[in-house]
Design goal:
The complex is a heterotrimer of chains A (453), B (336) and C (303). With 453 residues, chain A is of the alpha/beta class. Chain A is built from 19 helices and ten strands. Chain A has a six-stranded mixed sheet with strand order 2-1-3-9-4-10, with helices on both faces. Chain C has 303 residues and is mainly α. The chains are: A alpha/beta (453), B mainly alpha (336), C mainly alpha (303). Chain C: InterPro entries: MetI-like, MetI-like_sf.
């Protein structure tokens, strides 16, 4: 598990292959340069693992169980902590997909075995962990230096039980904006300045869909306004204070008008051909990024990183970021510390350090994971942040604005199942020729069956 | 198969000794020795079969039985993966609800169709391949390695590639179809095409495997059978039908049973064929198999009790199929 | 030893020697006949079909996300194959994982082959009370869907405190009803009762029969079963993933599960990991192919 800077290496190689074979030499040079950088990082990694294998005997080893998107190691945070605490050695276990990671975590928690000292929990699972596994996890609010005020209020509450035990410390959040292609907007006769674009739909998702109709009227060939129906319904629902559960923990998705409205609006947009007929994060969806098939997408900061990783090099600088109709959150993670760990005290300290504003800011600069600690928003890593895709746009400040406006949302243990049903067994069907009513019926049937114990 | 070799042997040896009256002390001594040997022989005949099968059953008792019992017990409860020891008794409700569970029956239908689409061509092709590989061939080692290459590929790796190859917009298969003038096929969303695509992953991975099993069995067929058939003027095809196939009967039965059981449990391929839609097997569950449905209820939705009942229902369905199958084949055998 | 013991069937039904010489090679089917051109064409198609997805995995591993999104898809290798393989190798710490997996798959395969052969022999050729019922149980255990058993099995392993130890993967994998069933069906066909009888007449104990008659006769099937089990254990994911960690003693599939992570999964890196997970098996087949196939051929020549 050597450190490496994935996005950069990818970008480098992508620039290479877009050129002709004649430039293969250049490509090789660029790639080997990239590898050189990787090797440099690997050397850093080598130091730490070298010291561990050599003199690691007396050290306390803290292990982290993570999925996909964290990147603590890639941002050099372990090395830094180990330098600050020479007696500590940090190891991580990373699984790419949360679908693999989470069921195993639940199994490990219920049996109290096979757990790492620190375990990451995705926001989609945090409510369930809070509800069912709190007894297995440490109360992190008691750790030295940890204060509730250090985090966005809603982020803190999401990982806190009713009787005040905080089972997880927030790492990143995903405040959402709308990322759009300036070139495509211009061709379709829409404004391109982010302030003006934001005004087009400020305050209402219906307006955004109306802008979509305008776009469609003069759309460049083979492009859609939005990337996918799933992206739209997710964005709308993310800004609601109540979506699938009410505050008492009752499932209300079927009767909550906010959910039905979001579904209907998305279905309408899909029916009118304003969204691509894609499911997000499928290889096929990736290709629509690479081939510039859509003009706008609801996007948290990490989405910009994703776009960067999947785009052709010539798309750099063609994007910009405007405020979403309503602010919402998409994604984010918590670090939890199982009580049964051998080094739970040390692990809790490390978790607190990794989630402190300074480290969150460093992580943002390196990985695009947006801080959940408001104090980080004034740090230069955030205020000066830029992205290749969006040129000079001050994305740090744009997303920080959005983050502060995000409403506290009631999240339930099975949010993911409900949302998956509405998206993958629901609105996507409209793009395949089903009526919105049929799609809703199919979604509800699936969800109800999946929720029933 | 009915030769009583095991019981036939001892009487020859043991039976001979008491038959002859002892002439002198030496002979009596020899007879005693033989009797002792014979007793040991009897013990050996009687108990060694159990000794031979016991390791399997001991391992099964250690690692197979508890999961089975637990699952059976869990199927009578409402129990969630988040607290697998926290059970609430519901009797047979998890079973009775299966009757109105349209997702279960949809999955059962899909399992059947995917099972047929994948198993039948797979076994026929495997038989043909084994037959060809049974000839003297240049580079036969090469083909045997090639044959196993797909099986050596993990389901995850195989599905990953096939998803890309079957891509609607940029997949190689649609690209090739386009060359011959066929419009792009939506391999993931169309019911039959998605089932064909999922089946093709299964066929790809398992054909060589079955061919290898057939091949191993074909090579155990005594050459003499072919020679006498050839002397009777049987053509190659007739030799295949009248010598090869009958000799392979136990092996064919084996592959059919194993493939049927395997087909009933298929879940990795459909799971990964549209991994971004979770375990629902497509947006309209168009390629959700029973194995995948079980996985969805148990691992994704975390309903351990329901999933256990589904597992046991699958088990019972298989047993029913097995009984029906043996009754039919017995009838067929009786009539022929 | 093999020769003397596998000969009897041929002797048991001895074809008159003159016949054997009279039959021309062409008249015989089976192992001795040469394949015609049609056979080679079919094999060529089959080879392409079998290898293409693998070759394309390598092509995809050598390309980046952007190139994979273009039409027509890439047909030839890009420049980064070895870089990606190298990153995947170091990133997933595959050296250690290969060692672990070899241990796990090797022990499992050898044990399963041995236990299955003796049990399969008993079920195929020996008579004992409860044989039918016990065989039904064996086949029955195959029908239990494995995805579900692993939850209670994990509870067991957790109680035994075996997490992150290789025996947690090895021991449960030894319950192979498949192997027993496979060997039974093979021996039913391939082991003539006459040889066993002949050995019995010579006064051989059951164990001697197994050692000197059954094992030689079962060799081809044992080779096949061993290979199949090795591959299966090598590729197993769900269970090893639950009990092993990447820092402890991961198997290959556990080790590569973390590849390509990040908000932008690196498709080609994932492909490179998939390729690396499969490659050793292919290399082993290629190197030992002769021996394995030799084992099968022996059965043919002598059977």
């Amino acid at each position: 598990m050597r450190a490496r800077t994935l996005p950069q290496s990818q970008l480098r190689s992508s620039r290479g292959t877009a050129t002709t074979r004649r430039k293969a030499v250049v490509l090789t040079a660029v790639v080997s340069l990239g590898m050189g950088l990787l090797a440099g990082c690997a050397d850093d990694g080598g130091d730490e693992s070298g010291s561990s294998s050599g003199g690691g005997e007396g050290k306390t080893v803290i292990t982290l169980g993570l999925f996909g998107t964290q990147g603590f190691k890639e941002a050099g945070l372990y090395a830094e902590y180990e330098k600050l605490n020479p007696d500590i050695k940090i190891q991580e276990n990373v699984v790419e997909r949360n679908e693999n990671y989470y069921p195993a975590l639940v199994n490990h928690l219920t049996t109290n075995s096979g757990l790492q000292d620190i375990q990451a929990v995705e926001v989609g699972n945090i409510a369930e962990v809070v509800e069912t596994q709190a007894s297995k996890l440490m109360d992190l609010s008691k750790v030295e230096g940890v204060k509730a005020s250090g985090w966005l209020d809603w982020k803190w509450k999401q990982a806190t039980t009713k009787d005040g035990q905080t089972v997880g410390l927030g790492t990143d959040v995903g405040p959402m904006a709308i990322c759009y292609r300036k070139d495509l907007f211009e061709k379709a006769g829409l404004p391109t300045d982010r302030e003006e674009v934001g005004k087009l739909w400020a305050g209402s998702w219906d307006k955004l869909v109306e802008v979509g109709e305008d776009y469609k009227a003069k759309a460049p060939k083979d492009t859609t306004f939005l990337d996918s129906p799933g992206g739209l319904i997710n964005a709308i629902l993310s800004g609601e204070s109540e979506k699938f559960y009410d505050a008492s923990g009752k499932v209300i998705y079927k009767t909550n008008p906010a959910v039905k409205n979001a579904f209907d609006l998305t279905a309408k947009a899909a029916k009118d051909g304003l969204t691509g007929n894609q499911t997000q994060f499928q290889p096929a969806w990736d290709t629509t990024i690479a081939n510039s098939k859509f003009a706008a997408i609801s996007c948290p900061p990490w989405m910009l990183g994703y776009i960067k990783g999947k785009s052709q090099p010539d798309a750099a600088g063609k994007w910009d970021v405007a405020a979403a109709p309503k602010p919402g959150n998409w994604g984010g993670t918590f670090l939890a510390v199982p009580k049964s760990g051998k080094n739970s005290e040390e692990a809790a300290k490390l978790a607190a350090w990794l989630t402190a504003p300074e480290q969150q800011a460093k992580l943002f600069a390196k990985q695009g994971s947006f801080p959940s600690a408001p104090a980080a928003y004034d740090l230069p890593q955030v205020t000066d942040a830029k992205n290749d895709m969006t040129g000079d746009s001050p994305i740090g400040t744009i997303f920080a604005e959005a983050a502060k406006e995000i409403p506290a949302q009631v999240i339930g243990p099975k949010d993911q199942i409900v949302q998956q049903g509405l998206t993958d067994n629901g609105v996507i069907l409209v793009t395949q020729g089903k009526s919105p009513a049929e799609a809703w019926k199919n979604a509800v049937k699936t969800i109800d069956n999946n929720l029933e114990k | 198969m009915a030769t009583r070799h095991d019981t036939a042997a001892p009487p020859v040896k043991g039976g001979a000794a008491p038959g002859r009256p002892p002439v002198d002390a030496a002979a009596a001594e020899a007879a005693k020795k033989r009797a002792r040997l014979s007793r040991r022989w009897q013990r050996d005949i009687r108990w060694s079969p159990y000794a031979f099968v016991s390791p399997f059953f001991l391992l099964f008792l250690a690692f197979g039985l508890f999961p089975l019992i637990y699952t059976g017990w869990a199927s009578l409860h409402t129990v969630e993966l988040t607290a697998p020891t926290d059970m609430e008794w519901v009797g047979l409700r998890n079973y009775t609800r299966i009757f109105d569970d349209e997702f279960f029956w949809n999955a059962a239908r899909n399992t059947l169709t995917i099972g047929i689409i994948s198993t039948v061509p797979q076994l026929l092709m495997a038989m043909g391949l084994a037959h060809i590989l049974n000839y003297k061939l240049r580079g036969s080692t090469f083909y045997r390695v090639v044959m196993l290459a797909p099986y050596a590929t993990s389901i995850a790796a195989a599905s990953l590639v096939f998803v890309l190859l079957f891509g609607r917009d940029y997949g190689m298969i649609n690209w090739a179809l386009d060359l011959v003038g066929i419009d792009a096929i939506d391999w993931q969303n169309d019911k039959w095409y998605s089932q064909i695509a999922v089946s093709s992953i299964i066929i790809w991975r398992w054909t060589g495997y079955n061919a290898l099993i057939y091949l191993a069995a074909m090579q155990a067929i005594p050459q003499d059978l072919y020679e006498s058939a050839a002397l009777d003027g049987a053509s190659r095809w007739q030799q295949f039908i009248h010598v090869t196939l009958p000799s392979l009967r136990p092996t064919i039965l084996f592959t059919v049973v194993v493939s049927t059981i395997g087909a009933s449990q298929v879940f990795g391929e459909p799971l990964l064929f549209d991994a971004n839609k979770g375990a629902s097997g497509g947006s309209q569950h168009q390629f959700q198999t029973l194995g995948l449905y079980l996985y969805e209820q148990g691992w994704v939705n975390q309903h351990l009790g329901r999933a256990s009942a589904i597992a046991w229902a699958m088990f019972l369905i298989l047993i029913v199929i097995g009984i029906v199958n043996s009754v039919i084949s017995r009838r067929l055998r009786a009539s022929s | 030893m093999t020769t003397t013991l596998t000969k009897p069937p041929a002797d048991a039904v001895p074809p008159p020697p003159p016949k054997r010489t009279r039959i021309s090679k062409a008249a015989r089917a089976g192992g001795q006949l040469h394949a015609g051109p049609v056979a080679y064409v079919i094999l060529a198609l089959f080879t392409i079909g079998s290898l293409f997805p693998l070759v394309w995995t390598a092509i995809a591993a050598s390309r980046d996300n952007q190139r994979l999104a273009q039409n027509p898809p890439p047909f030839w290798f890009g420049a980064n194959l070895f870089d990606k393989l190298e990153v995947a190798w170091t990133d997933a710490n595959l050296g250690e994982a290969f060692l672990n997996t070899t241990i796990v798959a090797g022990i499992s395969a050898l044990t399963i082959v041995f236990l299955s052969t003796i049990a399969g022999f008993a079920f195929a050729k020996l008579r004992f009370k409860g044989r039918g019922a016990l065989m039904l149980i064996v086949v029955g255990t195959m029908m239990v869907p494995p995805q579900l058993s692993i939850i209670p099995l994990y509870m067991m392993v957790a109680k035994l405190d075996w997490t992150d130890q290789l025996q947690a993967v090895i021991l449960p994998s030894l319950v192979s009803a498949f192997g027993v069933f496979f060997m039974r069906q093979y021996l039913l066909q391939a082991l003539p009762d006459e040889i066993i009888e002949a050995a019995r007449v010579d006064g051989a104990s059951s164990w001697r029969v197994v050692w000197h008659v059954v094992f030689p006769a079962a060799r081809p099937a044992m080779a096949v079963l061993g290979m199949l089990m090795f591959v299966q254990t090598w590729n197993d994911f769900l269970w090893p993933f639950l009990v092993l960690t990447q820092n402890g003693s991961p198997t290959v599939q556990v080790a590569v599960a973390g590849l390509g992570r990040g908000y932008t999964p690196d498709q080609s890196l994932i492909m490179a990991g998939a390729l690396l997970g499969t490659l050793p098996l292919l290399v082993v087949f290629a190197i030992f192919g002769k021996q394995i196939v030799g084992g099968i051929m022996q059965g043919a020549v002598k059977g």
